[in-house]
Write a structure and sequence with these properties.
The structure is a single chain. Helices cover about 30% and strands about 35% of the residues. It has 4 helices and 7 strands; from the N terminus they run ααβββααββββ. The radius of gyration is 29 Å and the shape is rod-shaped. The protein starts with a helix and ends in a 6-residue tail after the last strand.
Length: about 180
Amino acid sequence: MVEDVLNKMTASNDTTKESIQEAVNQALTDAGINSDEVTVTVGDLSKIEATSSTEGSVKGSITISSGSAQDGVTIEKTIAKLPKTDAEKVSEANKVVEEALAGVTVTNDTTRENLQDVIDAALQKAGITDVTVTVGDLNKTPATSGGAGSVIANISVSCGSTTENAVSYTHLTLPTTPYV
């Protein structure tokens, strides 16, 4: 019965020795088992809390006693990774945007839509779907035979209540145009 309770239990960062003891006690009560006849005691627990990047775990033992008989059950439960925060999602998307734009060769014909398409494809390839990335204003100084030009894009990244400028005013240098 104790093993059934443990198998049905979902461990979380909030799991405590007391919460396991309460679940076991409730199962004994529900089964009509008198606590004078059977004693179940949760021993010390060790817990590694889950984060958004790693699973956690709860480990420990339970002692079951009835009269002079005694047995034990091992507790080993995995705590699922926590969902990423909006800020973590934005940070991850920022990295993807920066990497995608680092590989872009811009020309005098580069448009806001061109950059948006590159970013959208990179986000899709990275599996990022719940973040909104928008290429805003695009200021362009055309390249001429006399010098290189530049593209300045204001790009915002948002998820939930978190919004940041991903690559605030990204400078992409246009090569010198051989002919005007």
